[in-house]
Amino acid sequence: MLDFSQFSGLVLFMFIFTTGFWLLLFLLTFVVPYWIGGTLLENFKLKREAKKAAEGK
Hints:
This protein is mostly helical and 57 residues long. Helix content is 93%, strand content 0%. The protein has one helix and no strands. It is rod-shaped, with a radius of gyration of 24 Å.
């Protein structure tokens, strides 16, 4: 049987572990693809503007 300090340590460990797990899952499924997609879109727009500027001159 666990006494109170062991139980509270286990609960704290499980809370930190599950919080880290869900944070990692959120980052890998939403934040990183949004970041990569935004970067690709921004680079595409910059290249398109540079191409238009080069054709105009």
